């Protein structure tokens, strides 16, 4: 279920039964993964990011599967799961070997982490006797991924949000999604204002990540699970050289052809995902007084 709590490890140790004499309950642990980590592996080492606080990572609004690990396969225990949110709300997920949960509150310097508790019981008739318990701290953070690694559903949702940014006026965007909503006109005007240029200087290095963040914040207002993916164009540089336009990003499943111009009214040709959206070519200076967009 969707919902709105540090260090992991064993909270208490019960004596191992004769059947598991070589096993200690400290070995029981919790694994949290999603469809991306199952395909591509964990998101780098948590030690590389101070904001991870030494905890494992989960992603907001992405279905996470919690499973038991480190327990002998021949045991016959029943597992009870609880999750405590940063706000201190407890969610009882019942008794099961694995469970799904959608984390929502993003971990920041001002918020606590999430915490998962796992209790293992042995059943004798109607009686349950606790054998071990453990917990794990989870940090909830957004992950930006390379375009070609997106699953199909996520690709469509990213493009759908971008299409909204390029189709709605600021007023319509505010009314539909709230703030912030930076539409293509706002971004075009800021990107190359006729009163200030964000190029040809050190300001380029900070301004353009800011523009990307403005797009991402708008996307998350449209769909809270989204991040702005990045494109590793060095892959195309190695494969195509000067023929970079052959990249998948210029196909109809992504952003459409790169060579459309005046004959196309500076819009995407028929067949592109973005066919028919307004263009951001400011040839008459109505938006920014320039045409660098």
Folded structure, characterized:
This protein is α+β, with helices and mostly antiparallel strands and 293 residues long. Helix content is 22%, strand content 23%. The protein has helices spanning 35-40, 152-165, 170-177, 184-191, 203-222, 234-240; strands at residues 2-3, 9-13, 29-33, 56-58, 63-69, 77-84, 90-95, 98-103, 114-124, 127-140. Helix 2 crosses helix 5 (203-222). The protein is elongated, with a radius of gyration of 25 Å.
Question: Can you give me a brief rundown of this structure?
Answer:
This protein has 293 residues and is of the alpha+beta class. The protein contains six helices and ten strands; from the N terminus they run E-E-E-H-E-E-E-E-E-E-E-H-H-H-H-H.
User: Helix segment count?
Assistant: 6
The helix/strand order is EEEHEEEEEEEHHHHH
Low-confidence stretches: 4-21
Mean pLDDT: 84
Keywords for this entry:
alpha+beta, 6 helices, 22% helix, four-stranded mixed β-sheet, elongated, 293 residues, six-stranded mixed β-sheet, single chain
Which helices and strands, and how do they pair?
Blueprint: E1 2-3, E2 9-13, E3 29-33, H1 35-40, E4 56-58, E5 63-69, E6 77-84, E7 90-95, E8 98-103, E9 114-124, E10 127-140, H2 152-165, H3 170-177, H4 184-191, H5 203-222, H6 234-240
Parallel strand pairs: 1-8, 4-10
Antiparallel strand pairs: 2-10, 3-5, 5-8, 6-7, 6-9, 9-10
């Amino acid at each position: 279920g969707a919902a709105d709590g540090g260090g992991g490890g064993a909270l208490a140790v019960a004596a191992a039964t004769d059947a598991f004499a070589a096993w200690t309950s400290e070995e029981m642990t919790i694994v949290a993964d999603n469809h991306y980590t199952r395909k591509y592996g964990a998101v780098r080492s948590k030690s590389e990011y101070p904001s991870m606080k030494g905890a494992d990572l989960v992603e907001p609004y992405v279905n996470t599967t919690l499973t038991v690990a480190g327990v002998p396969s021949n045991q016959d225990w029943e597992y009870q799961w609880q999750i405590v949110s940063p706000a201190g709300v407890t969610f009882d997920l019942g008794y099961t070997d694995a469970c799904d949960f959608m984390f929502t509150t993003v971990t920041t310097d001002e918020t606590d982490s999430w915490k998962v508790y796992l209790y293992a019981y042995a059943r004798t008739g109607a009686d349950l006797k606790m054998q071990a318990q453990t917990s794990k701290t989870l940090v909830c953070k957004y992950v930006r991924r390379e375009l070609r690694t997106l699953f199909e559903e996520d690709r469509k949702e990213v493009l759908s949000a971008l299409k909204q940014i390029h189709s709605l006026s600021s007023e319509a965007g505010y009314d539909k999604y709230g703030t912030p909503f930076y539409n293509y006109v706002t971004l075009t005007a800021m990107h190359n204002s006729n009163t200030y240029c964000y190029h040809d200087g050190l300001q380029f290095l900070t301004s353009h990540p800011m523009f990307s963040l403005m797009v991402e914040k708008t996307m998350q207002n449209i769909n809270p699970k989204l991040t702005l993916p990045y494109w590793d164009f060095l892959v195309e540089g190695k494969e195509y050289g000067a023929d970079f336009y052959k990249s998948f990003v210029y196909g109809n499943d992504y952003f459409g052809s790169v060579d459309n111009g005046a004959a196309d009214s500076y819009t995407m040709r028929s067949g592109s995902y973005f066919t028919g959206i307004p263009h951001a070519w400011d040839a008459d200076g109505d938006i920014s007084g320039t045409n660098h967009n």
